[in-house]
Design a protein that fits this description.
It is a single chain. Helix 3 crosses helix 9. The chain has two domains: 260 residues, Aminopeptidase (3-Layer(aba) Sandwich); 118 residues, 2-Layer Sandwich (Alpha-Beta Plaits). The two termini are 26 Å apart. It is built from nine helices and 19 strands. The longest helix is centred in the first third of the chain and has 18 residues. By secondary structure, the chain is of the alpha+beta class. The structure holds zinc ion. Zinc ion binds next to loops.
């Protein structure tokens, strides 16, 4: 069976209902596409306490360097209200020039196109002048514990080394060729609790209202701005996501108040330096008596409630230029090099090799009627094919 056609490849993958954590046949289907191209395919099951076992796939073609990795995931988010879909979510129906299905853009479409691009590369040039591998997880949309992190560790432990990675997540806001991601902001979350003394609202001198304290502290988190952005990143931004007192009585001063926050930060900071800055702000605000005249400092504690995602920026020109040049050669315009948006598995891969991200248009991802323009599949395959040829140094590409 030939895998040079991204449309057929994608239809095959969409018809596998691989909602996280189910493999759904998607990795087996991918294995069937890769083996005839000469890939050695390994299936790796990752386990951890409290999370479902997850199937992952690692496939490599070639044994020499340079080594190019394509990374992605075959798992998909739930379909939501199936009756609301114009065409069944695992049918891969083509209508009006678009293929419908959960995962069409996020990101079975990217995988389908990269497989087709590799197949075409082999048809044109023979085996690659180095190695190409696929690192595909079934746990990107879930807790992401038994996915890319463990697969990378497993592969590195058996000696795998990579020179560059392309992640095939949907990166384009409106049209194919808009945007390559060359880095991602970091993400850090925490929850602060202010401890007061409960009492009667008419006798505030006998109580200590924690609402006054939580307002002082949250204001200090939001103002002044953490930075004004950097050459490659937008300004860091903190959002207070909830303030909780839970007090239904108007005549009672509550005993405590809590607030949660999330900050998306740029390369001005590391997670550690940012935590230190936040603590310094909170301590200063706690010492202020702006809303609490003649009171001792605000009594508070803080819990960092998430493993932070670290910020990163890729500076590998060979990788960025081959991809950016390939986009321009195929669609006729230069993609923006961006660091916007949420986190992705690239944050784990960057510890092993330079990584960039480029895939389909993301507009319908995670929505009812997720779908991809059939023409985009052909265009993305052309971009990937040109990228592969350029990265391996085929001058004519
Ligand atoms: Zn995705």
């Amino acid at each position: 069976m030939t895998s040079t056609d991204p449309i057929t490849n994608l239809a095959t993958l969409i018809r596998c209902p691989s909602v996280t954590p189910a493999e759904g046949g998607a990795l087996s289907a991918l294995e069937e596409l890769l083996k005839p191209l000469g890939f050695t395919v390994e299936r790796v099951v990752a386990k951890d306490t409290g999370t479902p076992d997850i199937e992952n796939l690692y496939a490599r073609l070639g044994s020499d360097g340079p080594h190019l990795m394509f990374a992605g995931h075959t798992d998909v988010v739930p379909v939501g209200d199936e009756a609301a879909w114009t065409h069944p979510p695992f049918s891969a129906t083509i209508a009006g020039g678009e293929m419908y299905g959960r995962g069409a853009v996020d990101m079975k479409g990217g995988i389908a196109c990269f497989v087709a691009a590799v197949a075409r590369h082999i048809e044109k040039y023979g085996a690659p002048k180095g190695s190409i591998s696929f690192l595909i997880t079934g746990d990107e949309e879930g807790p992401a514990i038994n996915g890319t992190v463990k697969l990378l560790q497993w592969a590195a432990a058996k000696g795998e080394r990579w020179d560059a990675c392309l992640v095939g997540e949907p990166t384009n806001p409106d049209a194919l060729g808009d945007m390559i991601k060359i880095g991602r902001r970091g993400s850090l979350s925490g929850r602060i609790t202010v401890h007061g003394v409960q009492g009667h609202a008419a006798y505030p001198h006998l109580a200590d209202n924690p609402v006054r304290g939580i307002l002082q502290l949250t204001e200090a988190l939001m103002d002044p701005p953490f930075d004004s952005g950097t050459e490659s990143f937008q300004p860091s931004n903190l959002e207070v996501t909830t303030i909780d007192v839970g007090n239904p009585a108007v005549n009672v001063i509550p005993a405590k108040a809590s607030a949660s926050f999330n900050i998306r930060f740029n390369d001005t900071w590391t997670a550690e330096s940012l935590m230190a800055e936040i603590i310094a702000r909170l301590d200063r605000a706690a010492a202020s008596d702006k809303l609490r005249p003649d009171r001792a400092p605000v009594s508070y504690d803080i819990v960092w409630n998430e493993r932070p995602s670290h910020v990163f920026l890729t500076r590998n020109n060979a990788l960025i230029d081959s991809l950016s040049g390939a986009v321009e050669a195929v669609v006729g315009r230069q993609p923006k090099l961006s660091t916007t948006g949420g986190t992705s598995d690239a944050r784990f891969i960057k510890d092993y090799c330079p990584v960039v991200e480029f895939g389909l248009v993301g507009q319908t991802m995670h929505m009812v009627d997720e779908r991809v323009a059939v023409a985009d599949l052909e265009t993305l395959t052309g971009i990937y094919e040109t990228f592969i040829a350029r990265w391996f140094g085929h001058a004519a590409a």
